[in-house]
Write a structure and sequence with these properties.
Layout: H1 6-15, H2 27-37, H3 40-47, H4 54-61, E1 66-67, E2 83-85, E3 88-90, E4 94-96, H5 111-122, E5 126-128, H6 136-142, E6 148-152, H7 158-171, E7 176-179, H8 189-193, H9 206-209, H10 212-218, H11 226-236, H12 246-251, E8 257-260, H13 265-273, E9 278-281, H14 295-306, E10 311-313, H15 320-328, E11 333-336, H16 338-370, H17 375-381, E12 384-385
Parallel strand pairs: 4-11, 5-6, 6-7, 7-8, 8-9, 9-10, 10-11
Antiparallel strand pairs: 1-12, 2-3
Helix pairs in contact: 2-16, 5-6, 5-16, 13-14, 15-16, 15-17
C-alpha cells in the first residue's frame, strides 16, 4: 500500500544519484525562495495581513501551543488518511484554500490553471476563488478527476450571484463556499502603502467580465472599456449577508453550502439549525481583521457546536504537523493557502504539487511514528493546550 510518507523515500533515493529537491520541503525555506522570486506588489498582497499583522502571525504561532501525546506498540504499517466530504471520498483531509490572486502567482498569469493541475497531480481538492484570471469552467476542467469547490464572494446584484453559482454547479463543482467576512476589505497597510489593489487594475476579474449578467449590466464588452468594467465590479462586490439571506442562498443551488468565517460556537449552532451543510472555521488568515484570537484556538468550540456537521478549517496552516493538530481538534478537512501560492511562484503546477506532497508526507509520517494509523485515532489522541 502506497503512503504519502513515501515521498521522502523518493527524495532520498534520488539523492543517491546526486539529485536534490528542486523546491524546499520546509516552509521557512519555501518562504525565503518565494520572497526572492515574487514581484513586490504580489508578494505584499499574498503575505500581507490586517493592521500590524499580529492576528495573522498569531494564527501560525498558536499551533505551537497545542501538543499531542504519542502512543506506542501500535501497528501503523498501513495508514488511512481518507475522508468523506460533500459526498466525495477524498484521499486525504487536505485541500487548497481559496486565494484571490492565485492567477497572478505564476509568471504567465494562469496560476489558477496551475493550481488546478497541482490538484489533479496530487488529488488535493482546490477551492477556487470567485477572483480568477481564468474562467471558473476552465479551472475545474484542469483539476481533472479531483473534486473542486467554488468559493463565492456574494455580489450585491442577486442575478449576478445566481449566475455565478449556477455556472459553478453546471461546471461540476462539488460545493459552494460562501465567504462571510469580505463584503469590505480590512485595513491592509502593505497594500495601502503601495496603493495596490489588483482588482482595480483589472486583475483576477475574469469570472465577472465573462459573465452574461455582468456583461448585460455593463452594456458593452469589458475589453472595450476596462475602467467602466472595473468600476461596475467595485460597485457590485460585497453583499452584506445576514441570517435572513441563508434561505436565498440555499435557493440558488442544489450543491452543499459551507459558510466560511464562522469562529463563534453560537454562529456554528445557528448555521447548523438553518440547514447549512458545512462550517468553515477561519479568520481569513488574519487578512480581514486584526486583534482576534488565533483560529486554531477557536476550532474546538466550533467543532463541538457543529455536532455531526463537517467543519473545514484554515488560517495559519504551514506544515503537515499543523494539519494533524487541526484534525486532532476535530476538523474534518484542513486548508492550506500561502504555502501552495509560494509553490506556484517557484514552479507552477509542479511547485505547488511538491508543496502539497511535502505537507501530506509530513502529516502521514507524524501519524506513523506517533501510533495513529487513522484520522479517527488522531482525534481520539486529541491535542492538549499548553498552559
Amino acid at each position: 500500500m502506497a503512503h504519502f510518507g513515501d515521498y521522502q523515500n523518493e527524495i532520498y533515493f534520488e539523492g543517491l544519484g546526486g539529485v536534490v529537491p528542486r523546491y524546499p520541503v520546509d516552509f521557512a525555506s519555501l518562504k525565503a525562495r518565494a520572497e526572492a522570486a515574487m514581484p513586490p506588489f504580489l508578494l505584499n498582497y499574498v503575505q500581507g495581513g490586517c493592521g500590524d499583522e499580529h492576528t495573522q502571525d498569531l494564527n501560525a504561532l498558536a499551533f505551537r501551543d497545542w501538543g499531542m501525546v504519542p502512543r506506542m506498540l501500535v501497528d501503523c504499517t498501513n495508514r488511512d488518511l481518507s475522508v468523506e466530504l460533500f459526498g466525495c471520498k477524498l484521499h486525504s483531509p487536505l485541500f487548497m484554500s481559496p486565494i484571490g490572486v492565485t492567477g497572478l502567482c505564476t509568471p504567465d498569469g494562469h496560476g489558477d490553471l496551475a493550481a488546478a493541475r497541482a490538484s489533479a497531480i496530487t488529488g488535493v481538492p482546490l477551492a477556487v476563488s470567485t477572483l480568477t484570471n481564468d474562467p471558473l469552467e476552465e479551472v475545474v476542467k484542469a483539476a481533472g478527476e479531483t473534486p473542486a469547490f467554488f468559493q463565492l464572494y456574494t455580489p450585491k446584484h442577486p442575478e449576478l450571484a445566481a449566475s455565478l453559482v449556477g455556472r459553478a454547479e453546471a461546471a461540476g463543482y462539488k460545493a459552494i463556499i460562501v465567504t462571510l467576512d469580505t463584503w469590505v476589505t480590512g485595513w491592509r497597510p502593505r497594500d495601502l502603502n503601495a496603493s495596490n489593489f489588483p482588482q482595480l487594475r483589472g486583475h483576477v476579474l475574469r469570472n465577472y467580465f465573462g459573465d452574461p449578467v455582468f456583461r448585460e449590466l455593463l452594456g458593452k464588452k469589458p475589453e472595450e472599456d476596462l475602467r467602466s468594467a472595473m468600476m461596475l465590479w467595485a460597485s457590485l462586490f460585497g453583499k452584506v449577508l445576514t441570517w435572513d439571506d441563508l434561505g436565498w442562498l440555499r435557493s440558488l443551488t442544489n450543491l452543499p453550502i459551507a459558510l466560511k468565517g464562522i469562529c463563534h460556537p453560537d454562529d456554528a449552532r445557528r448555521a447548523v439549525d438553518a440547514g447549512i451543510d458545512a462550517i468553515y472555521c477561519s479568520n481569513h488568515g488574519g487578512r480581514q481583521a486584526n486583534g482576534g484570537i488565533a483560529a486554531i484556538d477557536m476550532l474546538p468550540g466550533v467543532v463541538e457546536a457543529a455536532g455531526d456537521v463537517p467543519v473545514l478549517f484554515d488560517s495559519g496552516v504551514r506544515s503537515g504537523t499543523d494539519v494533524v493538530k487541526a484534525l486532532a481538534l476535530g476538523a474534518t478537512a484542513v486548508g492550506v493557502g500561502r504555502p501552495y501560492s509560494y509553490g506556484l511562484a517557484l514552479g507552477g503546477a509542479d511547485g505547488a504539487a511538491h508543496v502539497l506532497r511535502s505537507i501530506l508526507a509530513e502529516a502521514d509520517l507524524m501519524m506513523a511514528v506517533n501510533g495513529w494509523p487513522t484520522i479517527a485515532d488522531v482525534r481520539r489522541a486529541g491535542a492538549v493546550r499548553r498552559v
